[in-house]
Amino acid sequence: MEIYVWITLTLVHCVKAVNGLKFTKNPANLTVTQGNMARLGCAVEGLSEVEIVWMKDGEKLYSTDQIYIPIDSHHWETFHRVKSVQQQDAGKYWCEVEYHGTVISSEPAWITVEGVPHFIVEPQDVATFSGDPFNLTCAAVGPPEPVQVLWWLGGVQEGDFRPSPSVLSVSGVNHSIKFYCEAKNAKGISVSRTGTVYIKEPPDAPTNIQIDQESGNVTLMWSPGFNGHSDLSTCTIQVSRSSGRKEKLPDLQVSVPPFQHMISGLSSHSNYSLRIRCDNDVGSSPFSPWMNFLTPEAVPVAAPKNLTFELTEQQLSLSWAALKEEELNGRLLAYKVQWNLGGESQEPFLFKENVAHLSGGARFFNATFQVAACTVIGCGPWSQPVVIMPASAVQAQTQRGHMWVGLILALLVATIVGLMLLVLFQRRSKESQFGSVFKTPGMDSVVSFTAARSFNRQGFELPESNLDSLGINNDLKSKLQDVLIPERLLTLGHMLGKGEFGSVREAFLKMEDGSVQRVAVKVLKTDITSSSDVEQCLKEAAYMKDFHHPNVIQLIGVSLHRQPQHRLPIPMVILPFMKHGDLHTFLLMSRLGDEPFTLSLQTLIQFMLDIARGMEYLGSKNIIHRDLAARNCMLNENMTACVADFGLSKKIYSGDYYRQGSVSKLPVKWIALESLADNVYTTQSDVWAFGVTMWEIMARGHTPYPGVENSEVYEYLIKGERLKQPPDCPNEIYEIMHSCWSPVPKCRPSFQNLVDQLEGLWTGLSSASVKEQLLYVNLENDEGEPHSGIGLGACTSRAAEQNWGVPWQCASKEEDEKDWLTVSSGAALAIGGDYRYIVGPCGAIDGESRPSEDNTSEDIRDDDEDVIINV
Q1: Which residues are catalytic?
Q2: Chain segment 258-308, per-residue pLDDT in tens
Q3: C-beta neighbour count of 77 within 10 angstroms
Q4: What is the rounded (10 degree) CA torsion for 659, 660, 661, 665?
Q5: How far apart are the C-alpha atoms of 573 and 485, rounded to whole Å?
Q6: pLDDT at residue 842 above 60?
Q7: Does residue 165 have a cis bond before it (omega within 30 degrees)?
């Protein structure tokens, strides 16, 4: 391939100058073909020592490989170099120098990137009704222009090339179909992602219904079934009560998501049944199976009525009406009868029935009795009090009561009449003096005031060190504020590990309830004084703050340690204590420990499956890990693998890649080929690292590429070589890891696909073997005794839908997918030179060779995994 570089060089003396400080050379405009190198230069005169900052589109460019060339004692020149220009490198560049608070700038220059078209709008999946027309959109740009677009629908070319952007109108389809577009300019052809047209259909029934009962309310949660390629809008909940006969309650219409609803007003201690269905644009799903549940008991809601008594010298007999079932709210435990005599409470009585017979009736004369019904939860309200007295006294009291009632009623009537006459007299008086008594509606007076001082009675004591003292950005401070833990609650123990930027120590964290939790604490080195290093450490904690997955390590909190004579407090990231350490050390122990032990294939696949699930979760959070390896996966007390160490992770906010722009210490033998070449990181580059991690697991901790130096890895890979198949590694597993190392990122399996394949392998082994127990060495409990017999539990599997058995190719997909996953003849003609600029998503590469089975060399070193990569 011929390389065309148009470079226009001009030297323009900058008119901006401060006290003799001026730019003598300004960057020149460049037009560069994609993949070639670009170099911009600046020169400044007037200072014996100078720091020239490169800017791009208003943002500072950070680079640690910038060098200065002295022209003379007060005259300096510097350059900015982009080794392999990509479309995102296009833009406006200039230099800046700060002098006594004043910033002077060079003249700007522009880098224009020419190459094969790149897509600004790629085809997206479409869900439509059968036979309904729809539109597909595709847009790509150069330079060079013009760019033309060609559509492929169901493996068939649709028309000819047309100008970009292009909208393809489809009259309608009756079944699911795939599509993509090609974009062509003078430099070659690019192929878009493959989209799918789905036909909408009714959803499947909801599953995994769960019921949580608390404080008389029932919270219902469920998982939606397959949505039929159309968003679910509502769900219908049917509830019925079984109390002798089935009583259907009104249907409940619930807007979704979220897929939960709180049902109130249900009777206590009652049998209910419910089922759910959900609706989309097409129709309703089938109902889920009926789920039966019993509401918990409660205290009775009513007091016993009609409390009566019969008194004789020998006995007091009490009786009252029994409570109905709906009033009891549970199973009747007893009726509680309380009484007092002479103003003093007496010992209460408990009766199973609604009658009571108490001997020695005379002792209850003039006593007051009340009764309440009780369940296992507690007692309900008390009945109206009844005073015990002989029948003659009751009759006389009743007569006196009637007389007093009549007198009170007469006084009440006289009082009401008097008040009415008084109000009438006052109203007539006001109308005669002031006109109307009533104001016009809406004329209420308004009273306003201003508080002289306000108080906050809920102030809290500041921690020993706060996030404001770290010099980090406000967004990071707000993310970490609610996980900040005072240092006084931590007690540091012995060191668990040590790295380039700090150490990991065992610690004990005092909880709010007074208990103590064993944790691990990552402590930044005490001699680090840069706010950027502190910020990098805390960014890792900020990522972990929102992680909630059993296979991803979760943040407990962040603490700050203040030391004398130090400007910045030392951040400490608090993590769960992983009892069995990192996976790499564990694998080495299985081969090289004092008491080697055997790891079954099912156990090794379980480790891979745990890691794949964790990485699938990180991908759903738009997190690129960039440092996935066995050493960065931890084993908890249940021998579950958790993805950890997010020091190099990046959250991608736009697009699907991240470009590393400076010198970094990176794990070369785990880095994808495109990342080694261009420092571009994607989820697909994490898939590459996962394949290397699978190799580590099957090789029981061997260092990848034995006998190959770090500096030789890139040349080794670009020749088509890959890691050899480890001994005792089944072909099915090696094919999975080998598919992760395709030179074309789009042809690597997704983590979702990897989970499906590994679950299929694990299930096959699980059904063919008996659940086994493992013996682990050097794993001590709190008393220092070795653990043994730690088993792996079963996990739910999903059937693998695809088999990526052929390395580096997509040919193993279903037959109806092959046509739109193959590079067209036009695209194949545009391929030339370095494989990195291949335009098709899955094109085969000349010279690819499958690694041989020879793997006799061995290297157990773990100290040479990192190397400096200059950009």
Answers
A1: 627
A2: 999 998 888 888 888 999 999 999 999 999 999 998 888 888 989 999 999
A3: 17
A4: -170
A5: 10
A6: no
A7: yes
Q: Which residue has the tokens 């007295």?
A: 389
| Amino acid at site 80 | H
Residue whose tokens read 């009726």 = 335
Give residue for tokens 């800017």.
55
Question: pTM of this prediction?
Answer: 0.41
Nearest CA among 701, 708, 700, 642 for reference residue 669: 708
Beta bridge partners of 759: none
Q: Exposed, middle or buried by CB within 10 Å (0-12, 13-18, 19+), for 476?
A: middle
Which residue, among 673, 710, 713, 670, has the nearest Cα to 689 in the 3D structure? 670
CA dist 341 and 350 (Å) reads 18
Q: State the pLDDT confidence band at 472, using cuts at 50, 70 and 90.
A: low
Q: For residues 523 and 573, give the distance between their C-alpha atoms in angstroms, rounded to a whole number.
A: 7
H or E element at residue 584: helix 583-592
DSSP 755-805: HHHHHHHHHHHHHHS---EE--SS-B-TTSPBP--EEPPP-----------
User: Is residue 173 classed as helix, strand or coil in its secondary structure?
Assistant: coil
Q: What are the structural domains, with CATH classification, of the chain?
A: 6-114 (2.60.40.10), 118-199 (2.60.40.10), 207-294 (2.60.40.10), 308-393 (2.60.40.10), 470-576 (3.30.200.20), 587-826+859-866 (1.10.510.10)
CB 153 within 8 A of CB 172: no
Alpha carbon distance 234, 218 (integer Å):
19
User: What's the rounded Cα separation, in Å, for the pair 450 and 691?
Assistant: 68
Cβ count within 10 A of residue 857: 11
Name residue, tokens 């040479």: 864
Rounded distance between C-alpha atoms, residue 726 and residue 695, angstroms: 7
Q: Could you give the maximum distance between any two Cα atoms of the chain, in Å?
A: 127
217: left (phi over 0), alpha (psi -120 to 50) or beta: beta
Q: Which amino acid is at 487?
A: E
Q: Which of 212, 323, 296 is nearest to 261 (CA)?
A: 212
Report whether 490 contacts 585 (CB < 8 A). Answer: no
User: 526-579: per-residue pLDDT in tens?
Assistant: 665 566 666 766 776 777 777 889 999 888 888 888 776 666 777 788 889 888
Neighbours of 484 (CB within 10 A): 15
Among 777, 855, 786, 764, residue whose Cα is nearest residue 599: 777
pLDDT tens-place string over residues 635-670? 988 899 999 876 555 555 434 444 454 434 568 899
